[in-house]
Amino acid sequence: MLENGQERRAPTNFSTELNLTQIIKTPTRITATSQTLIDVILVSSTALVLESGVINTSISDHLPVYVLLKLKAPKMYINLKNQMLGELINNNNNNHNLYAFYAANPKTSTLKAIPREFGATDLCKHNKQWRHVQHLANVFWSKWRKEFLPTLQPRRKWQEEVPNLEAEDLVLLRCKDVAGNEWPHARVIKAYKSADGEVRKLNLITTRDGAKHIYTRPVTEVVLLRTVHELK
């Protein structure tokens, strides 16, 4: 019995009492038992709420961290978990995009590439769920390393498409043992195309001390001065 003559209400469901059901969305993986345990944890703070009639400021000391996160910053929580980390993948090779919340809520229906140390049957064994968890962690960190980390430090090399060098192009040949203002001029004899159609290796002819020299150099060791079309 309270001082005003009002009877104390039994704290049967803390989430319902505070009308938090629209704010706190129970994860799909939390069972009924887990939800009951969460309510038991929150019941310890109901006295502060029922006696005052409003949410007491000290109630935050008793709430779990994840509840405070969703109460104080729901928009931030949603924006962070839906933020795409890697580049957009749009193909039919069972690849999926990497999101910030993927580590906590992976899309298991699309994870079909099983590491060698774990078999496909391990995903169905309830007595070895740690293998399932380890598999999901391996997939996440593999995508993190291959898709997200390279975006933190983009390289200027091979970032933009430029026309391939052709025969008879005039270039400047880089020489590590020669000062920059003494790099020799060279002419492209032959351009070698890779399997993807890009030129990465050249045959060059240059003159030094009155003698002609032929070199094979990668395209990164030359600087284009004039194309064959500009020389005509």
> Taking all residues together, what is the mean pLDDT?
65
Broad shape = elongated
In total, how many beta strands? Answer: 5
Structural class: alpha+beta
What is the CA-based Rg, rounded? 33 Å
- Number of helices, counting only DSSP H or I runs of 4 residues or more: 7
* H/E topology pattern: HHHHHHEEEEEH
What summary fits the major beta sheet? 5 strands, antiparallel
Unreliable sequence segments: 11-30, 43-57, 108-116
Number of domains: 2
Description:
With 232 residues, this protein is α+β, with helices and mostly antiparallel strands. The chain is 29% helix and 16% strand. It is built from seven helices and five strands; from the N terminus they run H-H-H-H-H-H-E-E-E-E-E-H. It has a five-stranded antiparallel sheet with strand order 4-3-2-1-5. A hairpin with a 2-residue loop joins strand 3 and strand 4. 7% of the residues are buried.
Summary keywords:
alpha+beta, five-stranded antiparallel β-sheet, Endo/exonu/phosph_ase_sf, 2 domains, 232 residues, DUF5641
Task: Walk me through the topology.
Blueprint: H1 14-17, H2 32-43, H3 46-52, H4 65-72, H5 74-81, H6 129-152, E1 170-173, E2 185-193, E3 199-208, E4 211-218, E5 222-226, H7 228-231
Antiparallel strand pairs: 1-2, 1-5, 2-3, 3-4
